[in-house]
Amino acid sequence: MKQRHFRLAGLAAAALLAVSAAHADTLSVGNSSNVYVAEDGKLATSLAQSSTGFHTPTLWGVQNLTTGTSFLAYCIEQGQSAVAASQTYTASAYSAPSGVQELYDRFYDTSLKTQQGAVAFQLALWELTGGSTVSSFSFVQVTGAKDLATSWLGTVAADNDPFAQKYTLTQWSNGAYQDVLQAVPVPEPETYALMLAGLGAIGLIARRRKASR
């Protein structure tokens, strides 16, 4: 069983290193088959657009055509459009402006549960990343979304109860289209312990092999 734990830990460490290293993949963000909002606790296809046609406050479904995987993401470039066709995006660790990390740690889970939460989270994120303020969005039709976003921003600004980090943030960047953020759960402490044990075991094996030559 120990050997299995060491193997899993090594794989987990390798996966984390792969996420943190900058690399380019082909993504499809926001076409008609994978634009989603959270609604009644489940993800549902949505073609809702804003009055401008592309500033849609929603939770995007992203297809990674390089790896054959998919993930959910919010936009951090309000002034650029999404694209239905596949495009090359570069992934890198996101250096979050003040408040963004706490917004994710406190409210990202909640945002996945309702349409109101998804729209509220996107509005709050846009304000924190230099987009328009929540109050300036006149086209938002989801009842209570703006009020919820304002409430969340108030909690983040007050910062009276610092929150433990629950996510690392990966930025997917494209020069012509919306950059998006992918939230990757931070491993639990026991997972870190297994990872360290796995790395230690790998180092021990390497030393033994070197000594036996």
TrEMBL record:
Keyword entries, A-Z: Signal
InterPro entries: Ice-binding_C (IPR013424)
Residue intervals of the Ice-binding protein C-terminal domain: 185-209
Pfam families registered for this protein in UniProt: PEP-CTERM
Keyword field contains Oxidoreductase: no
Residues annotated as signal peptide: 1-24
Name of the featured protein: PEP-CTERM sorting domain-containing protein
Gene source species: Aquincola tertiaricarbonis
Taxonomic lineage: Bacteria, Pseudomonadati, Pseudomonadota, Betaproteobacteria, Burkholderiales
